[in-house]
Specification:
By secondary structure, the chain is of the alpha+beta class. It is built from 7 helices and 26 strands. The mean pLDDT is 93.
């Protein structure tokens, strides 16, 4: 195989593909990407870790000899970033190595036979349409609540439901839960509901794909995989198996007290006070009294801090402990404006949400701590 392609076109697609490829892998082929010619002038790039696969296409300047090649993903990406803005020539040698030339630069990169590259799932039609901007908002406002513990398999992704009633995404790590929904998307759903557990890595890669994309994503599922068509790019992900917790049971029902805060003001106050919180627990104490919230923290070795935030509150005095990082994760993505803090007492889960209902129904539930 031999072809030429512009450096910018190559680097753009490699940026998406190499994010999928695992840097350390027991299967050598998985640290490679597959490059193959499609038709007279299109080059297809494929990367996979067996759970997530991405397929990108780019317009070639010329395809002298059609065919395919497997080449180390990370090394090729590093080289492409430093090449001059010019035409890059690729040629597959008899020993499966790949020669890369660009102006006065020349390199040889180890390659593998095409048959060593794993078979990827066949493309499934993606009949459902979903606005890319909204899907990215769903991910941005929920991904932080996914557990980092590998042992908690069913919590290591997001539950995504898309049916006639609209769309929703839910994530939890057992200590907090993020929920977001849009009711106005139901007309785009088919008769059969899409209900999938999408892994965290897939969501992170979708964030990259949708950042500069305007329009609709195509969605499709089969027994084990979910398919995302983002323009000319296709992301295929194995779905997580298992039972996601009943999130509706976690939603607080009896939170009869509510306080409204300025999101930015509360975020900055928590950030300052948390500097003196315990490094492991990140614990801060909320003391709600007449028309004010006092946030405090203390650390036996480093000291203590407190700050008062004015607010309209006329209920009983209440103390609640929280992991400051959990609160900041929500406040960092909810944006400016007013947020409602709803609670029952110092021992029950609290709920935060935008005070004014917008296009999204967004709720964040966080469990209290003993402090």
């Amino acid at each position: 195989m031999e072809f030429s392609i512009s450096k910018n076109a190559l680097q753009k697609e490699l940026g998406f593909v190499q994010g999928i490829v695992e840097k350390k892998n027991t299967i050598p082929a998985l640290s490679n990407i597959l490059i193959e010619s499609i038709g007279e002038s299109t080059i297809r790039l494929v990367g996979t870790d067996l759970d997530v696969t991405i397929r990108c296409e780019a317009e070639a300047e010329s395809i002298k000899v059609p065919g395919s090649m497997c080449v180390q993903a990370r090394k090729l990406f590093d080289i492409s970033r430093l090449l001059p803005d010019s035409i890059v020539n690729f040629r597959k040698e008899d020993n499966d190595w790949v020669t890369v030339k660009c102006e006065n630069f020349r390199s040889k990169i180890p390659g593998l036979p095409r048959e060593n590259f794993p078979e990827v799932p066949t493309s499934k039609s993606a009949p459902l349409k979903f606005p890319a901007e909204i899907f990215k908002s769903f991910i941005d406002r929920t991904i932080f609540a996914i557990t980092q513990e590998e042992s908690r398999y069913t919590l290591s992704g997001a539950k995504f439901i898309f049916d006639k009633t609209g769309a929703k995404m839910v994530t939890t790590d057992g200590h907090r839960l993020a929920y977001i929904a849009r009711r106005d998307l139901g007309e785009n759903a088919s008769g059969e509901a899409l209900d999938a557990l999408i892994p965290r890595k897939t969501l992170a890669e979708l964030t990259k794909l949708t950042t500069s994309f305007e329009g609709d994503i195509g969605l499709g599922v089969d027994e084990n995989h979910i398919y995302f068509e983002v323009g000319p790019r296709l992301l295929i992900s194995r779905m997580l198996s298992g039972q996601f917790p009943n999130y509706e049971m976690v939603m607080p029902k009896g939170n009869d007290k509510s306080v409204v805060f300025d999101s930015s003001q509360l975020n900055q106050a928590i950030r300052r006070v948390a500097l003196m919180a315990d490094d492991r627990s990140h614990a801060v104490r909320f003391h709600l009294g007449a028309n004010q919230l006092q946030i405090s923290s203390q650390n036996a070795e480093e000291g203590e801090a407190r700050e008062t935030v004015d607010t309209e509150y006329v209920g009983d005095e209440t103390e609640i402990g929280f992991n400051a990082q959990y609160l900041q994760d929500f406040l960092n993505v909810v944006g400016d404006g007013q947020i409602a803090f709803e609670f029952k007492d110092g021992n029950s889960q609290a709920q935060l949400r935008p005070a004014v209902d917008g296009d999204y129904e967004y709720k964040y539930v966080v469990m209290p701590m003993r402090v």
